[in-house]
Amino acid sequence: MSEKMQIDAAARNLVRRFGEDALRQADIRIKELQEHGEAAGLDFWRGVRGVVQSLLHGDGTVKH
Predict the structure, then answer these.
(1) Distance in angstroms (rounded) separating the CA atoms of residues 25 and 38
(2) Which of 8, 26, 41, 43 has the most CB atoms around it within 10 Å of its CB?
(3) Among positive and negative, which fits the CA dihedral 5, 7, 12, 16?
(4) Cβ of 53: how many Cβ atoms within 10 Å?
């Protein structure tokens, strides 16, 4: 599975699990990775956050 596919899958999973709170959940993971100096994981989760944001607010409604 490509990284893009993994990012999309992770984002959809967050939205499915947390709904409108998915963006905050992604931010929590990003903050934790920053605090631990995990640069590789940061890129992945920043990508996830971007997809979550698009899923939640792309057309003003939550998409599941």
Answers:
(1) 17
(2) 26
(3) positive
(4) 14
Residues 46 and 38: their CA atoms lie apart, in Å, by 12
In the chain, which residues have pLDDT < 50?
60-64
Which of these, 41, 42, 54, lies nearest to 14 by C-alpha position?
Answer: 54
Do the beta carbons of residue 12 and residue 28 sit within 8 Å?
Answer: no
**What pLDDT sits at residue 40?**
85
| Cα distances (angstroms) measured from residue 1 to each of 8, 12, 51 | 11, 15, 17
Asked if 23 contacts 63 with a C-beta cutoff of 8 angstroms, the reply is: no
Q: What distance in Å separates the CA atoms of residue 20 and residue 61, rounded to the nearest whole number?
A: 10
pTM of the model: 0.85
